[in-house]
Amino acid sequence: MVLNKSKNIIINKYTNYNEDERLVKDRAHNIEFLTTMRYIQKYLKPGAKILEIGAATGRYSITLAKMGYDVTAVDLTPKHVEIMKQKSKRLKNFQCMVADALDLNMFKDNSFDLVLNFGPMYHLFNLKDKNKAISETLRVAKKNAICMFAYLSSSSLIPYSVRTNDVLHVVSLMDKTGRAKDIPEEIFACSYIEDFKKLFEKTKSKYITNIATDGISPYMREWIEQLSKKDYEAFKNWHFMTCERLDHQGLSCHLLYICKKK
Ligand SMILES: C[S@@+](CC[C@H](N)C(=O)[O-])C[C@H]1O[C@@H](n2cnc3c(N)ncnc32)[C@H](O)[C@@H]1O
User: Fold this and answer.
1) Is the Cβ–Cβ distance between 51 and 64 less than 8 Å?
2) Residue of 8, 13, 77 best suited for mutating to test ligand 1, as the one with most atoms within 8 Å of CB
3) In this structure, what is the dihedral angle of CA atoms 82, 258, 255, 15, given to the nearest 10 degrees?
4) 110-167 residue pLDDT tens
């Protein structure tokens, strides 16, 4: 695999970050995981063959393999693949390897019933690479397979920067329309929902829905943590009920685009 400068930046970032804990470290983070799993389960068919691209340490992939699905997981960061190998030693229906979302040549066309592109779009900064990641994901999906793409929202940048006391710096990363500029050194690429949807216009796919996977929970982590069990359940259920509503979506830090391969 040929690694350019921006790929090395990504690998360095994740090699020095505890991604394994991210989705379970508190209630607010867990909402992203639970919401995403709800939609995976909504579209999963018995016996489905699943590919996750950008699987990190296998939070989704290994969960799905433990549920009995045949799962293949790939990631760019060798440390993550090592962790997945350690965690999945006893799972016969799970395999993982280092691979780049831009080149999935190890997989034939029309191979998987569900393809989860859960990380690469956060780190792709030019149109050519974004298109390539989408076309590779769709290529390896079977006809009528569901494909899901996780991405980050431009609209969440300033609200989140208030939490991190970083507003002026974040303003400098945006153009006059509030769109995040493509700056690989900043690690994360963000999109408006309308711009992300446009990436699919010329692809052989049919739009199904777009989900706010964490909604407003990242902004109020500490308060969510302090809620009583019953209040937390009520908050979570409100989030599940509203996460497909357009008026709730922009501020969500994490978004999920769901489509069907034609
Ligand atoms: C924020 S983590 C997301 C992990 C997990 N799938 C989730 O949804 O929580 C992003 C992952 O994508 C991987 N990644 C980034 N660019 C990639 C690429 N071009 N190809 C494959 N994996 C990539 C990173 O190594 C990292 O493990």
Assistant:
1) no
2) 77
3) 10
4) 999 999 999 999 999 999 999 999 999 999 999 999 999 999 999 999 999 999 999 9
Distance CA(54)–CA(76), nearest Å, equals 7
Q: Does the C-beta of 115 come closer than 6 Å to ligand 1?
A: no
245: amino acid identity, one letter = R
114 and 146 in contact (C-beta within 8 Å)? yes
Please tell me the CATH code under which domain 5-261 is placed. 3.40.50.150
Mean pLDDT, the chain, as a whole number? 95
Atom 17 of ligand 1, nearest CA residue:
120
Question: Over the Cα atoms of the chain, what is R_g?
Answer: 18
The CA distances from residue 179 to 183, 191, 210, in Å, are 12, 7, 19
Say yes or no: CB of residue 76 within 6 Å of ligand 1: yes
Measuring CA to CA, which residue among 64, 248, 84, 24 is closest to residue 156? 248
**How many angstroms does the Cα of residue 227 sit away from the middle of ligand 1?**
31
Q: Is 58 in the pocket of ligand 1 (CB under 6 A)?
A: no
Mean pLDDT of 47-76: 98
